[in-house]
Design brief:
mainly alpha; 19 helices; about 0% strand; single chain; about 475 residues
Length: about 475
């Protein structure tokens, strides 16, 4: 009897591993195909054909596969395929990603909206809840009203850009909640899909790093992933940390943590490191000691790499200004003076409570923003001297929707995700899943907000967390 139970458990683990490998290969193959741009010659036309097939398949794949189909948007289609440096050297190169697809000069968001309309048509019955009205009021109605009052509603293109956050968040919550409400997708299966997708991004970027090193006689830093889905390296990091036990299998998790940490430094995105650390504090008490040891170990590794003059580590520490004191004007003068100019605009328009609205901008007449490139702002902003976004979530949120709107957003997060104590019995794997989602919260609510794909990724994780906090769960 015991042997039978052991065999069943072993069979279940084998099946789980097989599914992770299967979906990992699917997402990785998609990642390779949809990352191809026009510089690849004839290969690009093959990838472009695969993109058209992907779009058409929205109408053809069985409903039970629509979740996997939608996750291809998150895991396999990069939303940014060229850095500003690459654009400056080579010009804009069309890619085979849905997030970059524009057939006739139309906004790329139209294709995403079309795909979601097909999803909704095929589902027929959608999961609508009062929270959607709340999101509409905060992120659509409020910024539209304040934009009109402050005189920014003239440039409709910029207004639509700012409203995309609310639109995509609503669409994502409707779609993913509708899938989970059907009851045919268990939390264990959703975890498999997230792990497979996260691994596909992790190993794609690791491959890009290794190829870059092998092709250069002298290694120089190059930003690996310009795509917002790189935040899933954090999920791999947290999940691996929580899976560690005192056995040989844990060496795999340690290796995954090291790879994740390596890539996080190679990305050279300071906010990822800050939210990685912040996420650790969302762990329950029983993991605090483990988190403390982890942080100590990471610090020791970083110091060792720094002393060994590892280029990515040295560059990141210098970018964080670790040894120079907490002086934002030194760490990031563009960000610092942008904030000062935004504060000046808020004071001038009395916009602190409700923000400046959709399409709003500030100018640099008070504090000159010098030496700017398209890495900081788009070319139109540079030409006109009108700056439509800030480089940190908190100031950007207050600038666009004010203190009232920002407070409303955080209230939405707490109430929608039911972050208050809820006693629900989970299996160990699902406990680790939930704690990993908790650790991701600081990143999810701040980092991905600037791109449509990032907002959709946030909506996906929000829907999962809501399902996990539901009193009726499908394991």
């Amino acid at each position: 009897m015991n042997m039978k139970l052991y065999d069943e458990a072993k069979s279940e683990n084998l099946n789980t591993s097989s599914l992770i490998v299967l979906y990992f290969l699917v997402f990785l193959f998609g990642r390779i195909i949809f990352s191809v741009n026009a510089s690849y010659g004839i290969v690009y036309y093959f990838s472009f054909g695969m993109l058209l097939l992907f779009i058409v398949s929205t109408m053809l794949v069985p409903k039970k596969w629509l979740l996997v189909h939608s996750l291809m948007l998150l895991f396999s289609h990069p939303d940014i395929t060229q850095s500003s440096t690459d654009v400056g050297i080579d010009g804009v190169l069309p890619s085979a990603s849905i997030w970059q697809f524009s057939a006739f000069g139309e906004p790329t968001i139209l294709w995403i909206l079309s795909i979601f309309l097909i999803y909704f048509y095929r589902f027929r019955r959608l999961a609508i809840d009062p929270y959607l009205l709340y999101v509409f009021l905060i992120f659509l109605l409020l910024p539209l009203v304040t934009s009109t009052i402050n005189g920014f509603a003239i440039d409709m293109g910029r207004v639509i850009t700012d409203l995309k956050f609310g639109v995509i968040l609503i669409l994502g919550l409707i779609f993913f909640n509708s899938i989970f409400a059907r009851g045919d997708k268990t939390l264990a299966f959703i975890l498999i899909l997230i792990l497979a997708g996260s691994f596909s991004i992790l190993f794609y970027d690791l491959g890009a790093l290794l190829i870059n090193i092998l092709q250069r006689s002298e290694y120089r830093f190059a930003n690996l992933s310009m795509d917002v889905s790189k935040i899933l390296t954090l999920f791999v990091f947290y999940w691996s940390m929580l899976k560690i036990k005192l056995n040989l299998k844990s060496l795999i998790y340690v290796c995954l943590m090291i790879i994740s940490l390596l890539l996080i430094f190679e990305y050279q995105t300071r906010w990822l490191i800050l939210t990685l650390v912040a996420g650790v504090f969302f762990l329950p008490g029983k993991y605090i000691f483990r988190a403390g040891l982890l942080i100590a170990g990471c610090i020791a590794l970083i110091v060792a790499l720094y002393l060994g003059e590892n280029q990515a580590t040295v560059l990141m520490i210098n970018r964080l200004n670790v040894f120079g004191g907490l002086d934002l004007s030194t760490v990031d003068p563009t960000r610092y003076f942008s904030i000062l100019n935004a504060i000046e605009a808020l004071n001038e328009k009395n916009g602190w409570l409700f923000g400046m609205g959709a399409g709003s901008y500030f100018v640099d007449s008070q504090n000159i923003l010098s030496h700017l490139t398209t890495a900081a702002y788009d070319q139109s902003s540079l030409d006109q001297g009108k700056y439509y976004r800030l480089h940190d979530f908190f100031t950007h949120s207050i600038f666009k929707i004010g203190i009232v709107g920002s407070a409303g957003y955080f209230y939405f997060i707490v109430s929608y995700l039911k972050l208050r104590a809820t006693k629900i019995a989970y299996s160990q794997d699902l406990q680790i899943f939930m704690y990993s989602l908790l650790c991701m919260l600081p990143t999810l609510v701040t980092f991905p907000t600037y791109t449509s794909k990032g907002v959709l990724l946030t909506a996906f994780f929000f829907s999962i967390f809501k399902k996990m906090r539901s009193p009726t769960l499908a394991y």
